[in-house]
Amino acid sequence: MLGMAQAQDKAPPKDLVQYIRDARKSGLTDSQIQQNAVKVGWPAALVSEAIANPPGDAKPVSNGPPSPATPEAAPARPANPAVATWEPANNPASLTTMTRPDSGTKTAAPAPAPAPEAERLKTASSPGVSEDYRIGEGDVLQISVMGEPTASVPSAMVRTDGKITMPLIKEIAVSGLTPTELEKTITEQLSKMIRVPDVTVIVAQSNSQRVFMIGAVKKEGPLHYTYRMSVIQAISEAGGLTDYAKRKRIYVIRNENGRQFQFPFDYDAVMKGQRMEMNRTLEPGDTVVVPK
C-alpha cells in the first residue's frame, strides 16, 4: 500500500501530461518539449519526470532523451518569464503555473519545524487562491479568531453589498480586500473588545472572479480565477483544445474602462517556445475565444 501511495505522489499533473501530448502531436522532440515547457513555467525536474514516465497513452518519442533535470528542487510556484515581460510591474513570485503546490513535487529541503496553530490555518487556505486575490460577491469566507470561538465564523458568504456579518463586529465590508487586508481590518475592530486578537481569513470558496472559455475547448464555460493563470494555463484548465480548433486564431477579449480590447494568441507558436509574449496573464472577466 505504501509503494502504491508513493507512486501516486510521483504522478505528473494532468495539465502537464496534456501539454506534452499536444507538443508531440506538433512534432516536437523530447528535448524541445523539455526546453519549451520550462519556458512556459513548469519546473525542469517535473517535466523530465513526466517525459521519462508518461502515464497512459503518452508515448515518448525515440529521437533523443530529454534534457537532464537540474539537481535543485523546483519551487512550488515558479515564475513565468514570458508573462512577466508583458506586465513588468507584476511580482514574478506571484505568478503561478499549472503545477499547483499540491502536485506532488518533492523538495530536498529539510522539513520545517511545526508551525503554530494560526500559521497552520493560514497555510490550509484554498491552495489556488494567491496572496493578491481580491474578495468579491459570492465568495465564501472562513474567519477564525484564535481562542475565541464565539467571535469566529465557520462560513460566511459575501453578500451583493460586499459585506458579511460577524459576531461582536456585526457588519463589515470585505469586497475588494485581500485576505491579509481583511485580517488586519478585523483585528483592528476586535482589538477594542479582545486583547491581542489573532485572526485568520480563509477563502473557502472562490466564486466571484472568473474567466470564460468559448469555442473549441473541451469544457466551455467559466473557470474560477483562483491564481494568475496565463492563456495556455486557462486552455489546459478547460481540458485542452478540440480537434477542430483553429489554433493560430485564438484571441482574448478584455473589457476595461468601457472599452473592449482583443489580444491574439497562436497556440502552436507558444507550444514551440515562440511568440511567448502572447501567453499573457489573464485578468478576472477575460474571455478566451477559440474559433472552430
Structural class: alpha+beta
The rounded Rg comes to 21 Å
Classify the helix fraction into a percent range: 25-40%
Separation of the first and last Cα atoms: 46 Å
Strand content: 15-25%
Query: Which stretches are poorly predicted, pLDDT < 50 over at least 5 residues?
Result: 1-9, 57-64, 66-127
**Separate helix tally:** 9
- Overall mean pLDDT score? 75
Spatially, the strands of the biggest sheet line up as 7-6-10-8-9
Largest β-sheet summary:
5 strands, mixed
How many strands in all? 10
Shape: elongated
Q: Helices and strands, in N-to-C order?
A: HHHHHHEEEEHEEEHEEHE
Give a quick summary of the entry:
The protein is an alpha+beta fold.
Descriptive keywords:
3-stranded antiparallel β-sheet, 5-stranded mixed β-sheet, 26% helix, 292 residues, disordered N terminus
Which secondary structure elements does this structure contain, and how are they paired or packed?
Layout (H helix, E strand, L loop, with lengths): L1 H8 L4 H12 L4 H11 L3 H9 L28 H6 L30 H7 L16 E6 L7 E5 L5 E4 L3 E4 L5 H12 L8 E7 L4 E6 L5 E4 L6 H7 L12 E7 L2 E7 L1 H5 L15 E4 L2
Helix pairs in contact: 3-4
